[in-house]
Amino acid sequence: MQYKLRMTGRQHSALSSHLFPGDRNEAVALALCGRRQGKDAHILTVHRIIPIPHEECPVRLPDQITWRTDRIEPLLEEAVKKGMALLKIHSHPGYYPHFSKVDDAADRDLFPTIYSWLDDGLPHMSAIMLPAEGTNAGGEIMARVVTRKGDFIPVNLVSVAGDNLHFWDSDSSNSEYVVGPEEFEAKNRQFFGEETFTRLRQLSVGIVGISGTGSPLVEQLARLGVGHLVLVDPDVVKDKNLNRILNTTRADASAKRLKVEVLADAIRAMDLGTEVLPLPENLVDSAVMRKLAECDVLFGCMDSAEGRYYLNRLATFYNIPYFDLGVRLDADGIGGVSYVCGSVHSLQPDGSSLFGRGMVSMEAVRAEGLARRNPEEYERQRHEGYIRNVHVERPAVITINMQIAAMAANEFLARLHPYRRVDNTSCAIRTFDFRENDHVCEPEGEPCLMLAKFAGRGDARLFLDDPSPEIQ
Question: How does the average pLDDT of the chain come out, rounded?
Answer without folding.
Answer: 87
